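dumping this here before i forget
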Amino acid sequence: MSRRAIITGAAQGIGQGIADRLVSEGWDVTRLDVREGEGVIFCDVSDEASVAAAFDALSERLAPGLDLLVNNAGIAHPYTGLVEDLSLDDWNRWIGTNLTGAFLMTRAAVPYLRKAKGSIVNISSTRAFQSEPHSEAYAASKSGLVGLTHALAVSLGPGIRANCIAPGWINAHGGSFRPADHAQHPAGRIGTVDDIADTVLYLATSGFVTGQTITVDGGMTHKMIWLE
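structure:
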């Protein structure tokens, strides 16, 4: 029987790449997103009723259990402008999608994850640990995912594992980059969606790893930068 996975934000970019990779490995994958796409089920992860409706629609499919939940959905644009001009509505939009969405999805998925002794993978960002100016809401939401992850690991273990991935600069949409963009990474290149998918697969199948955040950034967060 195929292992079952739910991937949020799976209509494009990293989420789509993770879903495609799991399918290629024989997984039965449910793709959730607010965007239309082939095989995609609509779900606004920031909305409690929308999450409940998605799980109601999936209840028969998930009856044997859920092996993996990947909380990838999020507002990818990190810049919110000057903090003194940041509205509460905009702050809540970033937090609601990037962080509250992971909570709502996890809460709904736990009964199915328990059946299969499954695992959760939250997709954070290296911006949980370092920032550029004017990205407070994004940084707070991604940092929150790190804390949520280790709390879930302790609360839900040993039956359910929870881990987190913090991607760095990932070429998620097939863009082109300068040689200098690649060269500044200690690994010698910008990351690919496959780099994240590889890590998801590792975390989904490594039974002794839980509560961890794995940084996948080509070494950038450990590179000292000096003004010249």
